[in-house]
Amino acid sequence: xxxxxxxxxxxxxxxxYDPKKCQNCYFDYLSDFTAxxxxxxxxxxxxxxxxxxxxxxxxxxxGQMADYEHHQIYEELDITDFVISxxxxxxxxxxxxxxxxxxxxVQKAGVIFSVFEGExxxxxxxxxxxxxxxxxxxxxxxxxxxxxxxxxxxDATAAEFPFKSSVxxxxxxxxxxRNIKKPVISETLKGKPVKYGVFYENGGSNKAQRIQNAVLxxxxxxxxxxxxxxxxxxSSDADGVFxxxxxxxxxxxxxxxxxxxxxxxxxxxxxxxxIADGRVxxxxxxxxxxxxxxxxxxxxxxxxxxLRLGGRYIELHIYSKKGEIHHxxxxxxxxxxxxxxxxxxxxxxxxxxxxxxxxxxxxxxxxYEDCPWREQAMYGMDSRIQILCGYYxxxxxxxxxxxxxxxxxxxxxxxxxxxxxxxxxxxTIPSFTAIYLREVWEYTLYCKDNSLAATxxxxxxxxxxxxxxxxxxxxxxxxxxxKKYWNFYEWRKGLDGAEYFNExxxxxxxxxxxxxxxxxxxxxxxxxKQIRPALASYYADAASALKRATFESFFDYESGGFVTRHGxxxxxxxxxxxxxxxxxxxxxxxxxxVEDLIMSGELIKTSVSMTVFSYEALLKNKKNAxxxxxxxxxxxxxxxxxxxxxxxxxxxxESDFSNAGSLCHGWSAVPIYIFAHYGLGK
Length: 682
Description:
The chain is of the alpha+beta class. The chain has three domains: 12-138 and 173-181, Sandwich (Jelly Rolls), CATH 2.60.120.260; 185-334, Jelly Rolls; 347-678, Glycosyltransferase (Alpha/alpha barrel), CATH 1.50.10. The chain is built from 15 helices and 28 strands. The strands form six sheets. Strands 11, 15, 16, 17, 18, 19, 20, 21, 24, 25 and 26 form an eleven-stranded mixed sheet that branches. A six-stranded antiparallel sheet has the order 5-4-7-2-10-12, with no helix packed on it. A hairpin with a 2-residue loop joins strand 22 (283-284) and strand 23. The longest helix has 21 residues, at 511-531.
């Protein structure tokens, strides 16, 4: 019989609280166990929605892979080095999000765990476990962004609630072992004070706005630093002291503060990727990149293990005329990767490769993330690029397999995937569901592993059949209509899905959606050849028919290129041409003309992410290799020349999206794949 660490364990929760209604709540669980230290001691646990583990008062680990009620992930932690012979105390701190966002979905809150020494059971979760609500954390906080959940307010002076016996939770045990490594939590990366002085409060309805609006006055009067710590004693009429700490590069980790402060001192904490405005952009278009800590008297040592920050700078506003910040920074949290030798040789190409690899690494933790700062969400299109590049940068196969399987469990009734699995948001992007079938095929191809496709085959078939079922009498697939759909392809005018279509609107058609769906059906036919050969020709024929119909409907014979949508007077978008070439939908006699159109500079150029389609389309003809390399050097070299140590969401950097552009975005790692797969840059 297979070992089941949760055979006798129960899902439990703190007494007096409703596990269905807790939102932005923190809880503590305490249990004692006795160990002999005769063998390996292992903690097995699953928590909704995040945990931190302490043994005998020492921090062990934290995290929890986001999951589903019907597919819960449990983790296995080796706690041997933290355990002593005799009595030990296990403390599990729990965070319950209780909302649907791009990173997490609502589930019934609970904790389940067991401790084993070898095969001997030492402890299980049940009613004997003591628990309480953590009164230090305030529930009423702002959402960081629409994609992430809440920021936090912590009051170190708050009275602690007493512990009580836990209660069982009626929650199904649908537990599956985590199949990827845990991120490694490193020693604290301490920030360097690069700007400091006094500040004056200038209004704001929340902590982020207060940071953003405050009047800053740089000063060294009464403020001292040794390059890491900051000590002050001021007598001015200012509201307090501010300091901006530089982590000396983009990173991701857990916020830490070590300070000596008077009782009740309020510390506002802003964080971000740059200080282009001379400060961190804490309040940004409704987003709130701000935290708050209220100090107890004297020494304060604080680590927040439930929220991974992304960025480079930490800005503190300290409401005290006297005090000391011994250090602030983050405990770096990095997924362990094996960096392969770059396939390029010149300094510029090596710089591009290494910067792209760093970008990829910072966008991998529990799953792929679009960016470590603003969203931390997994998208189909973003993850496809990250996975492709990761094959060549890291030789990674476990991480993509786990991510792709987890994505399949988010299948919706309409045959599309959630936009950001395993989270839930109100809309989805049909083209991102289409690219998912390519992701699975590419995994099968690169990793020489049919098992993933076999495991999720039924879901893949539902997606493919859903697309075929929407192809109408024109032979095309019309745009999706209704509040649930965003017809997005890339961040370019005419391709960003800015138009919304009601269910009652007339049908509209666009070449990019047809191309993405045709490619999806083609990829599924290749998967069928491996898993269900009898089905392959049906989907291959459907793909071919859609390609033909797309060519006939959107090709402009006068210009020799493709219009994006019916009604366009001429070809407008490079991406449209690239997708038609990429999917082999262009008859041979027109291929050269479409290639020339892409390289003409007359069209709206593809954005950073979608260059992968332009480059691969052009590289079907090796004569275009020099153009591709030159373009990479221009686009990515420009970012490097502006000081980038990770690559940006778009070429505009921080100024894009109303000053909310990400400076570390996984989809910008495209050059690694292009260099390595096509043998360029040598």
